[in-house]
Amino acid sequence: MKDQRPDPLTTEEMPTVVRQGLQQLRETPQPVPASWQAARAAFLTEARQLASESVTFPPAVRRKSWVGKTFHALIPSLKEANPMLVLLKIALIVSLMAGASAGAVTAAQSSLPGSPLYPVKIAWENAQARLAAAPEARLEQALTLAQVRVAEMLQLAERGQDIPNQTVERYELHLNVAIQAMGELAEPTQTHARAQIQEQLALHEQILEQIRERLQEHAASAAPGAAPETPLREMDGILKRSRDRLQAPNGDPPTTRPPDPQRTPNPEAPVPGPREPDLTEPAPGAGEPGGGPGPNPTAPSTGPGPNPTEVAPGPGEPGAGPGDPTPEPQTVEPTPTPGEPGAGPGEPGAGPGPNPTEPGPAATPSPQHP
Amino acid sequence: MLLERIQRRDETALAEVYDTYAPAIYRYAYRHLGSPDSAQEIVADTFHRFLIALKHGAGPEQELSAWLYRVAHNLITDFYRRESIRNTVEIDENMPSRAPQTEAAALQREEISRVRAAFRKLPSLQQQVINLRFGEGLSLEQVAQITEKTVGAVKALQHRAIEALRKILDERPTS
Lengths: 370, 175
Fold this sequence. Notes:
The complex is a heterodimer of chains A (370) and B (175). By secondary structure, chain A is mainly α. Chain A is built from 11 helices and no strands. In chain A, helix 8 packs antiparallel against helix 9 (165-184). Chain B contains 9 helices and no strands. Chains A and B meet through helix 2 and helix 3 of A and helix 2, helix 3, helix 4, helix 6 and helix 7 of B.
């Protein structure tokens, strides 16, 4: 959108003190490259997943009421739908209408392990996983979630926080689900999927190096020589095992597992076989939800949980909440509704505007959020 | 047309959108929040919303960047409210950086903090106009499109914001 026009900061009349201040405000530091790369990869994975889906309803449908849209998106064709899936989706609608905290789910998407909202994020992911039935969908979703876990680890490392074992375990679970889903695919899709997973593993390995550096930096400043290496060694082992499985036809686990002295330092200890993707147990962390039905696509789960991949945007629907500029009552609306206060010089907004679905603090209503 | 390719969910077009607009959204969010981590969260959330909107057949229909800036601004507003970001940001900005601090660098950090504090005292819409006009260097017409105001309204907002900033920045900092 930026063009070749003269820079307003130099051309507009304003006091010098303001010009200097705005000049300072303009400067922004570059984000950490690894973190930026991880975020980009996560977006592209999600975009790829979107690209692989077919467009299910024409633009005309968008003009229906939100109820119509919701049902249409959730149950596009009752004739073709899996009855259990339909029941689950209906349960999701009911739970949403019953007041499931859409705002909390939205807010939780950027939360990190240890955050109060993180359990919501995990529950949300589990609900999504339950609805992914086809191997292609499970593969894409598992890879996206694996990427999310790695990004979380990097963010924790950048903040000097330890990486919880549960996060590592979840990462392994996602990879196992992805590899198993790959094994269910027919050729040549399977070969493509195999390459996709290998590409992701290579990216994760790069990010793991960044994580290692960050953790070492923080550990060196806190207690020299005390870098928390255990989760990283575990991650090394997971990457290695996943690569080994990818070598096998259909992603089958190897019958004999190569020794991994870092993972099993005690040679007497029984070496557990490669972890099968236990889809009924998403390995929830302490205090995290998700101990209920896991991402078993065939399980007729009754566990409520919003489905961001299917639910059409409607009031309180988290996936299309903040920022969806459709003129529906949502958490945040870029498109102002008629009667918007403060359009023009009389703008009264002082600070953030209230979110219509959340009781905000006593702030003056922002014109952006009627 | 990029928008048409996006509506077709062309993966290359989606990557192009990210590479083109994510840095601008990051800068925009950073100026508001003063925290690289928070700014990156806003970027991730904005583009997540973008994909969700596409999935539902919604999303930008005319000006992509305006749509993204609007979503980002709404997320920033939510972010302020949700996490009491003003306190968090102050902590972030006062944290010692890894680089050795010279006196000049420390003074500069202090000055930036003062400017950002002044910026945050402005009403939300004035912040948006100042950020887009003088942070991103956008034209009045572009800012009007993003904020969905008239050009005249944007000019008025800009004028009032500059005047308010002058008053705040002219005040002697209390030690």
